[in-house]
Every structure is written in structure tokens, then in C-alpha cells.
Design brief:
By secondary structure, this protein is of the alpha+beta class. Helix content is 41%, strand content 26%.
Length: 330
């Protein structure tokens, strides 16, 4: 259950739903396995797995949800090979070329035949809401996966006003400054990984792993004008991670001190163990985000959410329509 990646979103409106109400709203979209002709299914499952039944779990003021996505796995190479065999058979029998549209129809036939027998691959996507801090945190390695969860959550609860976390200072410029100095921000140390990019040439990339980031070679690249787009950092209690220019955190690894906090508490069953780990993890992430945002100059609150943009556009259209009516009247 320990998160390995953090995609953080800022709540632009108060999140007032209780765990019970959130469960009620998610229930109509409970996960159901793929049918014989389904290519994928997405739905909500209990965060506690087989040890729970509620689709929203509350602990220490935080709300956790879990989505499950199941996809049918049909290797493209297998499909293409089968289509090629069928196309060749038609060409030999009828002495003609098989066109592009007909090949697509053959591909649809092959998929229809293979789909019921295909293996189903599933993955779980966890996220938690921190109403007091005003965050929604998704354990996702890609923005696409995080947005998929947000889209389904927004659909379930009708309204979810969130925007990706943004800092007041530009991340790549700030991280470049740290490494050029070289001096890590307060409460942090440099890790052993970074990615440098040329702002004038997006294809020019240098990736460093298991390296001393204060070495002269890296310093020379920075002096030459390259900027830091990913940077490995170590926080206070040995928490290691890589942060990128979108403030997305990857390869998050909690240190021994953090894990010992969870292990030192007595848990009578799996549900209690989940609550202990959930509570320890969320407290640590909250403190980490606080220090991290301070290092980047604070939170940029100027970004509008999707709901706010839509509402503003709607008001503009209404005002424009009213103006047009006024012109007709006068």
C-alpha cells in the first residue's frame, strides 16, 4: 500500500464528503471483470482489498480510494500475423490484392475471435484525499493514469475541483540553481540521479544515474546552459525520490526510520495494519510536500480548475447573449 509515485493535485474547493457518502457515490461504478468481448473495464474496489467492503476508507482525517483497471492482452504481432495469413489466402484464392479497408475488417474479425480467449491483466490505482491540507494524491507513474482516475472520480461524485500542483518558482530553473551552487535546499540532500536538457534543443538529453551530482562534469554541463529536469533528492528521514519539472515524484522509497514507525505499532489484524501504514505514510507525505513546496517558493494558487474554467466560460457566454439581446431591444 506504500505509494511509490506521487501525482499531487490541489483542491480548489473544500472537499466535504465523508467516507460513507463517498462510498455511496462510488458504489454504482464498482469494478466488474471484463466480459467476453470487452477490451477493458474500470471501476472502484475496496482499498483494503478482501479485508474490507467500503469503497472509501478513512483514517486520521484522510480518505483513500482504489480503482481497478482490467485489460485484455492480445499481442499485436499475433494479430498482424493472423491478418496477414487471411489476406494472403484471399489473394491466392481470388487472384487480387487485399486493400487497406478489407485488411481492417479482417483485423476486426481476428480481434473478435481472440478477445474471449485473451488473458486479462489487472492493476490497482490508489489515491487519497487530504481535505485539511487541500491535496489529492495519486500513486501513478504517468499523468495519463492519474487523469484517468480523476476523470472517473469526477464522474462518480459529479464535481471535483482540482488542478495539478504548481509552485511559484519554475522547477527546472530552481533545481538548476541548486545543482549549480551546488547546495541542496533545507531538509534535503542530493541523491545520485538527474536528467539535464538543453532548453534550445529538446532532443539534447543527458541522464545520470549512480553519479555524484556535485562532480565537475555535471557542473560543466550546467555552466554550458543545460537545465535540470529531473533530480534525485533525499529528505529528512532517509526518504528517497526523483522529482521532475512537473513536480511529479517517482521511485519514492521510505527510509528505515519511517518504516519502523509503522512496525512499532501493534496491529491485531490486516485492517488495523492498513490503517497504521496509511496514517504513517500520509503524515510523512504531508511533511515532505510542505518542505518541498517551501523549497520551490510556495504554492502557485493562480491556476484555475476545469470546473472554474467551464464556469467562467459559461458566464462569459451568458453575458454575451445578454448583450446581444440588449442590442435587439434598443
Amino acid at each position: 500500500m506504500w505509494f511509490k509515485n506521487l501525482r499531487v493535485y490541489r483542491l480548489t474547493k473544500e472537499f466535504a464528503l465523508t467516507a460513507e457518502k463517498l462510498h455511496e457515490l462510488l458504489e454504482p461504478n464498482t469494478f466488474a471483470p471484463c466480459g467476453s468481448q470487452d477490451t477493458a473495464r474500470y471501476g472502484w474496489v475496496p482499498p483494503l482489498g478482501r479485508h474490507g467492503s467500503q469503497l472509501a476508507h478513512s483514517a486520521n482525517g484522510y480518505l483513500m480510494v482504489c480503482a481497478k483497471k482490467q485489460e485484455k492482452v492480445i499481442p499485436a504481432a499475433v494479430v498482424n500475423e493472423k491478418v496477414e495469413e487471411m489476406a494472403q489466402a484471399i489473394a491466392d484464392k481470388e487472384a487480387r490484392n487485399v486493400g487497406r479497408k478489407e485488411r481492417q475488417n479482417l483485423k476486426d474479425e481476428v480481434l473478435l475471435e481472440m478477445r474471449p480467449k485473451a488473458f486479462a491483466r489487472s492493476r490497482l490505482q490508489y489515491a487519497y484525499i487530504a481535505p485539511k491540507e487541500g491535496w489529492l494524491v495519486v500513486d501513478a507513474s504517468s499523468a495519463k493514469a492519474a487523469e484517468e482516475l480523476l476523470e472517473n472520480l469526477r464522474e462518480a461524485i459529479s464535481s471535483l475541483s482540482v488542478v495539478p500542483l504548481a509552485a511559484k518558482n519554475i522547477p527546472q530553473q530552481t533545481m538548476t540553481h541548486w545543482l549549480t551552487a551546488p547546495e541542496a535546499p533545507q531538509h534535503f540532500e542530493f541523491g545520485h540521479e538527474c536528467e539535464l536538457r538543453d532548453p534550445q534543443d529538446s532532443g539534447s538529453v543527458i541522464r545520470c544515474k549512480n553519479q555524484d551530482l556535485c562532480a565537475e562534469e555535471i557542473h560543466n554541463h550546467l555552466v554550458a546552459g543545460l537545465q535540470v529536469h529531473k533530480l534525485g533528492l533525499v529528505w529528512r528521514e532517509g526518504v528517497e525520490f526523483v522529482i521532475d519539472d512537473q513536480l511529479a515524484i517517482k521511485r519514492l522509497k521510505f527510509g528505515d526510520e519511517v518504516m519502523e514507525k509503522a512496525d512499532s505499532a501493534d496491529a491485531g489484524n490486516a485492517a488495523q495494519r492498513f490503517d497504521i501504514e496509511f496514517s504513517v505514510m500520509t503524515v510523512e507525505i504531508s511533511a515532505l510536500l510542505k518542505d518541498l513546496l517551501a523549497a520551490f517558493g510556495g504554492v502557485n494558487t493562480d491556476t484555475a480548475s476545469v470546473e472554474e474554467i467551464v464556469a467562467k466560460a459559461s458566464r462569459g457566454e451568458a453575458e454575451q447573449a445578454a448583450g446581444e439581446v440588449d442590442e435587439v431591444v434598443f
